[in-house]
Amino acid sequence: MWISVIAVTFVLSVVATSGSMIISANELILDETQNSESNFSSEDLSVYYSEEKKNSELALEKIKEEYGDVQPKFNENGEILLTPEDELRMEQAINQYLAMIGFNPRMRGVGKNWWNSTGFVAGVIDVGLIAIGLWTTGGSVSAVRTLLRNNRTNITRMVERQILAKIGIGVSGLLNSMFNIALTIASTSVGGVLAEGLDRADGKNDNYILA
């Protein structure tokens, strides 16, 4: 009987000690992860930026290949007619794109890097618009501006709730300014003018969004 009690006591002691060791190890791993994310040098970020930019460009080409034939439908006022299938396709395309490029949302809070650059944001917006056929209609500067004017409400809603929300960017207070600025920018990329509009609207105009 005494032997059993001693054995049980020993086992419980070992389990308790092991548990504290596991907790300490987990805390150490977490601290190391957090420190590694906060200790990137500007040189490190520059290398990552170039690699991630290249990967994003390749992924965008794949999205164009898969969704580039989608034809949008418009009403008599030039406004796109969106269906639940369109919105589902948009979500699917954005998820595919982010998976292909290895999107890391935690890096958005580590200085200025690819994940909060206007180039990345423009790409994500373009992916969403490609999936519903809007991107393919912008063949010239005037076509892009006409598209934006005719679809201001739809595009604003999509950009805020279905595109930027996917990458953790909240810009509700900047949307009107973003759109007004975008209409003055000469570009054939809808995502490009909207991302640059956001960059100027956040007051910094430094090629990064809220960074």
UniProtKB/TrEMBL annotation:
Protein name: Uncharacterized protein
Source species of the chain: Enterococcus faecium
